[in-house]
User: Which sequence fits this backbone?
């Protein structure tokens, strides 16, 4: 867009006009507009995409001038389309700002001055839109920004008044906890999750994600509870949860976070010589997990290894057993073998003196689990070194099962999901590529960093599939960001439908084909520029 080009604001049809922001605006903005109706200024409200929702002004000449640059209801004034402006730039930087005349990117907008203030949800903190005051450049003054900021505050106050009683109760408890505590604080409700600045300052993104997951786990409790949890960084924290009620109903709860001082019972052991060479990863949380499995195997302590699918439970058991000399490990998969066949083979292997790993033991029927417990009674009664080592993999992670089988296993080790030890991705990538035979393939820093931003719901198994796909695309050399599969170019952490995944992949491929040119990519796939910009943001696509 050149200096003298008309702003390229796209018109967008909207399907709803009953958002929480618009409901608040219907109560707040008329009075504010009346305060400035005799001034040569326009009061504008947009949504979070920069689409103008409403526009009022007492000056007809100003309204005509705004129409000429499409600063009117239905048009989108995002920075990606219009360049620097009071609406789109306020959305980008997330704070109030004044854009005077020549500071605008588009030539025709330089005759205006615009003050934009983001409107945030009073409970979630999400940016819902922008209040903008626009006037002719020669009328600019700092009062524009003050008025826009005041209008945004009034809208927040109204939204808080309109919030549900449970939301207000959580917000009130959260504010009280933040004022009275010098510790990190997290609030959780049915639809609300908040964390204070101390939480963001003291914990990096993987640790924050782990804290939120554990907070959600205890969020439905009706009594105070305190738990200890290991974070991906290796830090151990105490989460102190207090429920919040309103009208006798549980609204959610407040969690105060305290870092634990290292002690013998919670210190992360250093694993050096006892670390299996075939297991990649050096993060403290991963080393702690590896050490626990290796020690159980060395001591011949029967072990339940649980965790999400694809985290590497089987690989960890095999690798730990490789450190035990002169012993054979038989691996039987309950997900593939029938119960009767598994019991028969297990009996044979135990009779031959083998150690035993039973995968997906949770897939067995209650009758077969009871029969397996009976089969293991004899070996269980033996003392090391005569007793064989037996390990089970189990999912979901449920230690409350009181079956006779699980009572024979004194300890469980939970293998963390990949999203909890993202620092290990470079080591995992190198190990998996070598396993695939791709010894001449290396990931560029940008590609490696992108992998560390993803959610990895399929854990290491998903990472392996990504690298297999990458290896099919490129056999050697340095893998750049645009060589990664389309799914890896999007950082959205929500689950996409099949159609959404296809749409995301089409956009990624088009951007790669046209060297990141969004306009050319949109044209190639029959999509408007406004839509492709929205989809890029929605899917978290890295151009």
Assistant:
């Amino acid at each position: 867009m050149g200096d003298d080009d008309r702003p390229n604001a796209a018109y967008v049809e909207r399907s709803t006009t009953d958002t929480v922001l618009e409901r608040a605006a219907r109560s707040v903005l008329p009075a504010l507009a009346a305060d400035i109706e005799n001034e040569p200024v326009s009061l504008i409200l947009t949504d979070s995409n920069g689409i103008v929702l409403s526009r009022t002004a007492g000056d007809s000449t100003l309204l005509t001038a705004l129409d000429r640059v499409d600063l009117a209801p239905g048009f989108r004034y995002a920075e990606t389309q219009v360049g620097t402006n009071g609406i789109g730039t306020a959305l980008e930087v997330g704070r109030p700002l004044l854009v005077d005349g020549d500071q605008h990117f588009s030539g025709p907008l330089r005759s205006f001055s615009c003050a934009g203030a983001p409107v945030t949800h009073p409970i979630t903190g999400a940016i819902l839109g922008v209040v903008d005051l626009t006037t002719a450049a020669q009328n600019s003054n700092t009062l524009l920004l003050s008025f826009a900021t005041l209008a945004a505050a009034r809208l927040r106050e109204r939204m808080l008044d309109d919030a549900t009683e449970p939301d207000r109760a959580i917000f009130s408890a959260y504010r009280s906890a933040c004022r009275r505590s010098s510790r990190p604080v997290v609030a959780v409700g049915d639809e609300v999750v908040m964390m204070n600045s101390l939480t963001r300052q003291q914990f990096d993104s993987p640790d924050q994600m782990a804290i939120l997951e554990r907070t959600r786990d205890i969020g439905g409790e009706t009594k105070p509870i305190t738990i200890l949890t290991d974070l991906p960084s290796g830090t151990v924290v105490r989460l102190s949860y207090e429920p919040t009620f309103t009208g006798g109903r549980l609204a959610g709860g407040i969690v105060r976070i305290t870092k634990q001082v290292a002690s013998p019972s919670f210190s992360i052991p250093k694993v050096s010589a006892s670390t299996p060479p075939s297991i990649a990863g050096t993060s403290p949380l991963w080393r702690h997990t590896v050490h626990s499995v290796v020690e159980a195997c060395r001591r011949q302590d029967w072990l339940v290894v649980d965790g999400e699918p694809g985290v590497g439970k089987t690989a960890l058991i095999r690798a730990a057993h490789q450190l035990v000399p002169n012993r054979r490990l038989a691996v039987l998969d309950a997900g593939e073998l029938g119960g009767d066949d598994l019991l028969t083979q297990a009996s044979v292997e135990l009779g031959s003196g083998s150690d035993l790993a039973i995968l997906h033991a949770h897939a067995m029927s209650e009758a077969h689990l009871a029969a397996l417990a009976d089969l293991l009674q004899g070996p269980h009664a033996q003392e090391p070194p005569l007793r064989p080592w037996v390990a089970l993999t189990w999912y979901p992670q449920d230690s409350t099962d009181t079956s006779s089988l699980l009572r024979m296993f004194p300890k469980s080790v939970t293998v963390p999901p990949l999203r909890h030890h993202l620092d290990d991705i470079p080591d995992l990538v190198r190990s998996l590529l070598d396993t695939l035979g791709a010894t001449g393939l290396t990931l560029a820093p940008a590609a490696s960093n992108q992998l560390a931003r993803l959610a990895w719901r399929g854990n290491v198994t998903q990472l392996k599939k990504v690298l297999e796909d990458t290896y099919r695309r490129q056999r050697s050399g340095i893998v750049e960001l645009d060589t990664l599969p389309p799914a890896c170019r999007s950082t959205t952490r929500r689950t996409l439908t099949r159609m959404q995944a296809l749409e995301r992949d089409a956009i990624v491929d088009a951007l790669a084909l046209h060297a990141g040119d969004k306009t050319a990519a949109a044209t190639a796939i029959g999509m408007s520029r406004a839509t492709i910009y929205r989809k890029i943001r929605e899917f978290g696509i890295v151009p």
The domain at 284-416 is CATH 3.40.50.300 (Rossmann fold). The two ends are 19 Å apart (CA to CA). Confidence is low (pLDDT under 50) at residues 262-273.
